[in-house]
Amino acid sequence: MTIDQLTALVAFAFVSSVTPGPNNLMLMASGANFGFRRSIPHMLGIGIGFTVMVLLVGTGLMQVFDRYPVSYTVLRAASVAYLLWLAWKIAHAAPSGRGAGRPRPMTFLQAAAFQWVNPKAWAMALTANSLYAPDATLWAFALVAGVFGVVNLPSVSVWTVLGQQMARLLINPRRLAAFNWTMAALLVASLYPVLVP
């Protein structure tokens, strides 16, 4: 890979990681509801989970989708259903200390597993491997995954900080509820590119 190609890959990784999507919207909600420190496992789960996903998609899963196109349709349906469920959970999140159970931020393993049903993560992984690892070697896929590993975590952390800063405005339970409903609506809206070809 040339320096120009590597620069383009870093730019793609940054732009695709920092722009709105399910991960970033959920981190913003987590930062607002739980603060930065309690959201660290969630951020690490995204960063490490997505890096592993990029590598595994490149080393074999792209071929599965090429060979069995219905598998992509099944994955898309499961992703939409799971994101709708998450949006419902965010919309109905009670302020800390209220509700039947004490709310908790997403764990490392939950966030890492979420990458596999995140439509934006799939689009990013498939596009990155197609564009920046055209020779389809293990080294090329590892390089693409490594770049995302370095770029992704600082990029998504910005959304957690933004949510944490907004928490000052969300002390009022009504404002927090409105924020959570807005985040849920944006999460559902992020499905638009998946549902409309």
Quick structural summary:
The protein has helices at residues 3-18, 22-67, 69-91, 108-114, 119-132, 138-166, 173-189, 192-195. It is mainly alpha-helical. It has one domain (3-191).
Produce the secondary structure layout.
Elements: H1 3-18, H2 22-67, H3 69-91, H4 108-114, H5 119-132, H6 138-166, H7 173-189, H8 192-195
Helix pairs in contact: 1-6, 2-3, 2-4, 2-5, 2-6, 2-7, 3-7
Using brief descriptors, characterize the structure shown.
single chain; 197 residues; mainly alpha; 79% helix
Structure description:
- By secondary structure, the chain is an all-alpha fold.
- It has one domain (3-191).
- Helices cover 79% and strands 0% of the residues.
- It has helices spanning 3-18, 22-67, 69-91, 108-114, 119-132, 138-166, 173-189, 192-195.
- The longest helix has 46 residues, at 22-67.
- The two termini are 32 Å apart.
- The model has no long low-confidence stretch (mean pLDDT 84).
Enumerate the spans where pLDDT stays under 50 for 5 or more consecutive residues. none
Q: What class would the helix/strand composition place it in?
A: mainly alpha
Task: Categorize the overall geometry.
Answer: globular
Please state the CA-atom Rg, rounded to the nearest Å: 17 Å
- N- to C-terminal distance: 32 Å
Q: Please count the helical segments.
A: 8
On the 0 to 100 scale, the average pLDDT is 84
Beta-strand fraction estimate: under 5%
Helix content: over 70%
The total tally of domains equals 1
Q: Report the biggest beta sheet as strand number plus sense, adding barrel if it closes.
A: none
* H/E series: HHHHHHHH
> In total, how many beta strands?
0
